[in-house]
Amino acid sequence: MKFQPPKGTRDFLPEEMIKREFVIQKIKQVFEKWGYEPLDTPAIESFELLAAKSGAGQAIKDEIYYFKDKADRELGLRFEFTVSTARILASDSSIPKPFKRYQIGKVWRYDNPGYGRFREFVQADIDIFGSSLPAADAEIIAVACDVFAALGFKDFVIRVSNRKILEAFSAAIGLDEKSRLEVFRSVDKLSKIGESGVIDELKNKNIAEEKIKKILDLIKISGSTKQTMEKISNIVKKIGMSAAGIEELGSLVKEIEIFGYEKNIVVDMSLVRGLEYYTGAVFEVAVAGGNLSLAGGGRYDKMIEMVGGNPTVATGIGFGLERIIEVMKENKMLDLPKVQTKVFVANVDEKVKSSALKIASQLRKENISCQTDLMNKNLTKQLEYANSVGIPYVVIVGQKEIRSKKFKLKDMQKKTEKEMQLKDIIAVLKS
Amino acid sequence: MKFQPPKGTRDFLPEEMIKREFVIQKIKQVFEKWGYEPLDTPAIESFELLAAKSGAGQAIKDEIYYFKDKADRELGLRFEFTVSTARILASDSSIPKPFKRYQIGKVWRYDNPGYGRFREFVQADIDIFGSSLPAADAEIIAVACDVFAALGFKDFVIRVSNRKILEAFSAAIGLDEKSRLEVFRSVDKLSKIGESGVIDELKNKNIAEEKIKKILDLIKISGSTKQTMEKISNIVKKIGMSAAGIEELGSLVKEIEIFGYEKNIVVDMSLVRGLEYYTGAVFEVAVAGGNLSLAGGGRYDKMIEMVGGNPTVATGIGFGLERIIEVMKENKMLDLPKVQTKVFVANVDEKVKSSALKIASQLRKENISCQTDLMNKNLTKQLEYANSVGIPYVVIVGQKEIRSKKFKLKDMQKKTEKEMQLKDIIAVLKS
């Protein structure tokens, strides 16, 4: 009888964990530099809360891990973080605003597992609660840019849009609210089903062909940020629709210039992002030429009311760790050691074992990660072990070495060795 | 409608998270210095696996979060880590031994919440798989000592025992296997129900009074490590029982001396630790004078077979993060800042906003955590915000300051301020 991890979940053995931890550390450092404070919430939330946020209501039950506890309370595993923070803010309106927090942890979705898709995965999230200004959305985007730059990405692209534009546009061309929602749903699928797919879907939803054409003209606008913004402005003026969306988008673009990331920005009217709770700016990060969304977010000004709190505006972004790691691995951006242990302190025989342990203690005092023999292996077997797990150095301790105070330091990759005093060994291992 | 976190779970707002992260970082650093490698497993495991480990079988269902997924698979939230690592080792016997790994994360138990007890809590775990030597148990104990020393504990005590001693003793005085199990269960409750409680329980289980007296004589042995070891040795010789346990315990004590932690060790025959899967050495850490177990573990040589693998011996220890944090808070050992943000870069008016943002960018390049205004607050409100969240410094940016290249640095705690060049501000903030 051999057990497996449950479907859609995985184990992270050291080699993979070292990669994941490296990425998490980099992301955390950026979040903290921008003054986002750490927060953690339970993995379990009441189902009622999870359903309140999704907009989908009870239908969300099919997409998450749902269960009842022994007192028959309906619970679910969180499928993202913002709803939990919204719960906190809803129950305590005295928390100073803006409230800037980050959260990194596991979330669960009862998805169909596929490429880069798991039922249990790690998400990193930043959000700003309490600011309605485009400056807040711009900061979120600037942090995302800093994150991808810190991870070593050169050509990443942040597509930005503002849902108020497509919303007002759809209203201006005479679509009712239900049809507008259908437009959002279909446009969201553009990269999956293509232009003709979107047209077919909208036709099937009984939207008039001339309106479909107008929508496609809007979402297909392209060019430099300046050109795109001008084209959209012209349309806004021409059809006399609300200018709120384009004004916010204009401010957002201007703010991003202050941080020097304007070259990474693409204004893209086809970006709507599926989730129904977005209310304004939306954004999504991908590597240039790639379609896979590595991070995405936007403004969601209604959520805290939705969970019973005072109106509190909010904007934020979530980073999909496994996808980022996948892309980094493919591009050889995660060339890290297999283990964190730096050195194995080997003993030549039983008699010098305690000396080897004491030398290891000295190395640890210098913050050097080391292991010693725990299985009474002979020297050959100790070296084999160090080699098999990928420990880069071995120090050899024998009677002779203890007397001369000089120890052999073996470099396991270069297959070289050198006799050295302990202080010089420490210097090599720390460099 | 206000939502709460589910019963027995909690939110960690920044102030609490900073404490938890501080403790986790310290623990991780010690684990890594000893060459334990990071590992992570799913929060969800198959119920069959969780039941296999507990020894309690199906009865464990009442003590954990148990549920079925949409394909009717029986699952549960993990209640500790070792069973998951055992699963990995059982399915891949080629992993080099010893396999030394650490795991830090959330675990869940459907306990009755109480003091320092939650249904969702954080555990930190190290284990060594593949070594049967007391040297491995001693290393685990030495790492635990390093952890508590690194956290700033001065007077911590590690109680150690070996279950083989009480086991062999009980057999030698003529108890059958079922009665021996009852002895373990009752002795385990000693600190809760007292000596008379143990006596009553054993009487109720029909164990003869003269045998109960003998057991109590054994578990009440006290004194220095040397004295205790001698007394136990004498008993072992006198009644002619197996000496395996006392020999292992002797080696363990000797190994610990190498690491200089002999003064923190108390040999305590009343320590058995409830879990039925322990097979030899057992240990438990508490602060001197305290009864609360802050960490505990032992040798469990049968678990990998129990989950279907080749026989693979194992030893390890788990640290209860919330209890450690509770004790540290009570003893003022976690006097950390309320937030990680070091400085708020305030703008005097709208016109200098982008200058303030650029100065913030420069500070971030120096790894200084900073925030800027995101809500068009006036200067007074910006200072109020910084003060309310506990940001220790504010830099003030105005037209005059930009011209003179000297900025006011306000120390919010000392309520002092000084005009300085940016490079000097950076020096103060980094110190």
Number of domains of chain A: 2
Tell me the name of the CATH homologous superfamily of the largest domain in chain A: Bira Bifunctional Protein, Domain 2
Q: Beta-sheet strand percentage of chain A?
A: 15-25%
Low-confidence stretches of chain A: none
Question: Which architecture of the largest domain in chain A per CATH?
Answer: 2-Layer Sandwich
Q: CATH top level of the largest domain in chain A?
A: Alpha Beta
Rg over CA atoms of chain A: 28 Å
Given helix and strand content, the structural type of chain A is alpha+beta
Helix content of chain A: 40-55%
Strands of the largest sheet of chain A, in order across it? 1-5-6-11-10-9-7-8
Instruction: Write down how many β-strands of chain A occur, each being a DSSP E stretch of 2 or more residues.
Output: 16
Number of helices of chain A: 16
Task: Write a structural description.
The structure is a homodimer of 431-residue chains. Chain A has an 8-stranded mixed beta sheet with strand order 1-5-6-11-10-9-7-8. In chain A, strands 13-12-14-15-16 form a 5-stranded mixed beta sheet, with helices on both faces. Chain A has 2 domains: 14-330, Bira Bifunctional Protein, Domain 2 (BirA Bifunctional Protein, domain 2); 343-430, Rossmann fold (3-Layer(aba) Sandwich), CATH 3.40.50. Chain A contains 16 helices and 16 strands. Helices cover 43% and strands 20% of the residues of chain A. In chain A, helix 1 (14-33) runs antiparallel to helix 4 (134-150). The radius of gyration of chain A is 28 Å and the shape is elongated. With 431 residues, the first copy, chain A, is α+β, with helices and mostly antiparallel strands. The mean pLDDT of chain A is 94. At the A-B interface, helix 1, strand 1, strand 2, helix 2 and helix 3 of A face helix 1, strand 1, strand 2, helix 2 and helix 3 of B.
